Amino acid sequence: MKEIKKLLVANRGEIALRVLRSAKEMGLQTVAIYSEADRNALHVRYADEAVCVGGPQSSESYLRGDAILEVCRRLGVDAIHPGYGFLSENAEFARMVTEAGIIFVGPSPEAMNIMGDKLSAKQAVKAYNIPLVPGTDEAISDVEEAKRIASEVGFPILIKASAGGGGKGMRIVNNAAEFEEQMQLAINEATSAFGDGSVFIEKFVTGPRHIEIQVLGDEHGNIVHLFERECSIQRRHQKVIEEAPSSVLTPELRAEMGRCAVDVARACNYTGAGTVEFLLDEHRNFYFLEMNTRLQVEHPVTEQITGLDLVKEQIRVAQGLPLPFTQDELTITGHALELRVYAEDPQNNFLPDIGTLTTYVRPQGPGVRVDDGFEQGMDIPIYYDPMIAKLVTFGKDRTEAIERMLRAIDEYQITGIQTTLPFGRYVLRHPAFVSGDFDTNFVRDHFTPADLDAKPDETTAKLAAVLTAMLMTEKKAPVAASGAPATATGSNWKRNRLGVR
Ligand code: MV4
Predict the structure, then answer these.
(1) Does residue 93 sit in the same domain as residue 139?
(2) Which residues are catalytic?
(3) Is residue 407 domain-shared with residue 472, that is, in the same domain?
(4) Do you know which InterPro entries this protein is assigned to (predicted)?
(5) Which CATH number goes with the domain that contains 283?
(6) In the structure, what pLDDT confidence band is assigned to residue 33 with cuts at 50, 70 and 90?
(7) pLDDT digits (tens, 9 = 90+) for 175-214
(8) Which residue of 124, 245, 290, 326 has the fewest CB atoms within a 10 Å radius of its CB?
(9) Which of 203, 231, 260 marks a domain boundary?
(10) Cβ(409)–Cβ(463) under 8 Å?
(11) 199 neighbors 183 (Cβ within 8 angstroms)
(12) 342, 417 in Cβ contact below 8 A?
């Protein structure tokens, strides 16, 4: 075992604070780094020591691997937690850290390299029986060959950049006539954005759900999955609401996707916490898309339903300890939702809204968790992500988690800036969301800014009607389609399987 005594968090905002809290509970000494824009930030005050590493721009501070390593040497740091974003998926940084004799709390640089490129990820999982979207598993540059494959796969197809991610460098092609132009655009975009023009083709799945599986691996070859997160409610590839468990997975499908996720992790000898992304189509076929080699923003919903602290687990496996549980020992209890609260104006095309948090009062009470990095009176800096907070609620079932989220949104008081809280309230009250019948097109299909002007009474009445309908269905159908008892894991998720097409 490689004991960690002093941990540096190479990040800012809510995730820096989140990691520091777990480190403190574990009795570790903590070091924060910060930029000139974050002098008064909460993570700086929370850590035992804090060092300014440069200017407000990320490139002058949070992305400066050399400066961060210098702080580690000076303060005798034995491990770095990278959080998400910034250097968290930078294999070169992970290698530098390891070569400096410091523990990188995350996977090996090799695993990061394999999964950082979508085509090499597809190659790596080839030896396993992982379903992939029909298409090519190699870079394609010959337009005629690409067209031939596209017509075999069938339109619409999607051209994706191998080095891309989060929707960057994707092009939908509806017919052969558009093909050549779109392919050239995709290659040019990929070349200028990633310095790598490799593209490939996939059948375009038109109304998919985005389901991801949390995995955790140790250095002794043990890998488990921690069930799924449903992340279909997003706007322009920015997630808005995440939940666990998903209301569309049967226990059988959950186990099958879980096994595949573990195999994806095995394909790159994954260690630490990671996430395997799948698309689920309307017939509930699933396809592996990519793997994210970091702790994700939405990890709290998994923590709430499993009772685990993922940051502690990350730190333990980074010290070389074996996982303290087996797959069979893991169960789902209750239901959790996360609403991302952004400093954006939903009435004005979600334009980032910067300024001072004149009023900032967090919701409290049963089943509410707020992960944030701000206090009343602070400014939201313009240099970083506009996410102010993650509002997480949990309850015995999905209905209770929704009711608590609506109550928590009402308690949340933020003035001085516009936020996405009203948008969150709108989504949580929408019959399609409440019934579970939605896909990644939810926001496009169901939202216009005028919806936020609706009288609260009208939407409340609508919600009451839907909840009543759900309660009646629960009484009629408390048993899963498989005929298995509905609460084998102590979870009520099966009762919520409405809207399954
Ligand atoms: C797809 C797809 C449909 N068909 N691939 C977007 C982000 C990246 N991780 C993969 N993405 C998609 N890939 C095929 N073959 C639809 C999406 C997609 C999407 C995926 C997950 C969550 C939200 C999304 C929104 C639009 C498109």
Answers:
(1) no
(2) 294
(3) no
(4) Acetyl_CoA_COase_biotin_COase, ATP-grasp, BC-like_N, Biotin_carboxylase_complex, Biotin_carboxylation_dom, Biotin_COase_C, CPAse_ATP-bd, PreATP-grasp_dom_sf
(5) 3.30.470.20
(6) very high
(7) 999 999 999 999 998 898 888 989 999 999 999 999 999 9
(8) 326
(9) 203
(10) no
(11) yes
(12) no
Helix, strand, coil % in the chain, rounded to nearest 5? 40, 25, 40
Residue 296 identity: Q
Residue numbers of the domain that contains 437: 209-452
Mutate to test the pocket of ligand 1, among 162, 200, 280, 440 (most ligand atoms within 8 A of CB): 440
- How many domains, in total, are found in the chain? 4
- Whether 459 and 433 have beta carbons less than 8 Å apart is answered as no
Burial class (CB in 10 A: 0-12, 13-18, 19+), 422: middle
Same domain for 446 and 472, yes or no, is no
Judge whether 124 lies within some domain: no
- Whether 166 and 263 share a structural domain: no
CB 234 within 8 A of CB 240: yes
Residue ID of nearest Cα to ligand 1 atom 16: 205
Nearest CA to ligand 1 atom 21: 210
Which atom of ligand 1 is nearest to 231's Cα?
22
Q: How far apart are the CA of 167 and the centre of ligand 1, in A?
A: 6
What's the whole-model pTM score?
Answer: 0.91
Among 44-58, 393-407, 458-472, where is mean pLDDT lowest? 458-472
Q: Are 431 and 401 part of one and the same domain?
A: yes
**444 and 468 together in one domain:** no
Residue 44 belongs to a domain with what CATH number? 3.40.50.20
